[in-house]
Amino acid sequence: MDKIDRLLDAIEHPDLYSEKDIETLLEDPEVREVYDLLDKTKATLTPIPAPDIDAEWETFKKSHPATQQPTTLRIVNLFTRNIAASIAIGIASLAAVAAVVGVSVNYVLNQTAETPSAETVATARENLVTTDTITVAEELPAAPPETIVFDNEPLETIATRIAGYYGYKVEFSTDAPKSLRLYFRWNQAQTLDEIVESLNNFEQIHISVKDKTIKID
Predict the structure, then answer these.
(1) Are 52 and 114 in contact (CB under 8 A)?
(2) Would you say 211 and 168 are in contact if contact means Cβ atoms under 8 Å apart?
(3) Which one-letter DSSP state was computed for residue 204?
């Protein structure tokens, strides 16, 4: 029987051990540590008031009349051997689980701190591109309006270029007006409606604007 088994046996059968035997047993640091652990566990798990130590000591002295030296030992009725052994094993298991959980948490935290996520990298790149775009836009002022002269140019070319400048598209009802050649001065400072009004002065065509589309008949 090893020293831990002797401790558990003394807990279960205190009447089989003298006070001297118990004190000698508890002089071993390892045994004392196990005893203190079991004692603290009992205090935590037992929902009843703590026992009267003086009364317990008197009971112990009566069952051991040959022993008269005082002691702080509180081993009487602590636990049965099986319950104490189960608690000791359970506590050891909890300690092992806690250690594994602690290592896992530390690993995850370290990985998170050291390795940025793909989303973080993408966001940083997007912010960088946006910042660069804004900087370029601020450095390059918008081009001032110009006056473009179309000299004997097909109407399709003139209309397509004007529509693109104002963000519109061109729609011809027939192909005939496409090849019509015109001389036209386009002042980009004018609105699209003003440009259309000027083009409608040519008798061969009729231009209207609707739903972001320049329609030419």
Answers:
(1) no
(2) no
(3) T
Rounded distance, CA 10 to CA 182, Å?
117
Length of the chain: 217
Cα 199 from Cα 149, distance rounded (Å): 13
pTM, 2 dp: 0.37
Sequence-distant (≥ 6) Cβ neighbours of residue 114 within 8 angstroms:
none
**Interval 4-59: pLDDT, tens:** 888 788 888 888 888 888 888 788 888 888 888 887 776 666 555 666 777 876 78
Q: Which fold does the domain 147-216 belong to in CATH?
A: Phage tail protein beta-alpha-beta fold (3.55.50)
Q: Find out whether 81 and 8 touch, Cβ atoms under 8 Å.
A: yes
For 27, what's the count of Cα atoms within 13 Å in the CB-facing half-sphere?
6
Separation of alpha carbons 79 and 8, rounded Å: 8
Domain boundaries in the chain? 3-109, 147-216
Count of beta carbons in the 10 Å neighbourhood of residue 188: 14
User: How far is 73 from 61, CA to CA, in rounded Å?
Assistant: 12
User: Packing angle between helix 29-45 and helix 19-26, nearest 10 degrees?
Assistant: 100
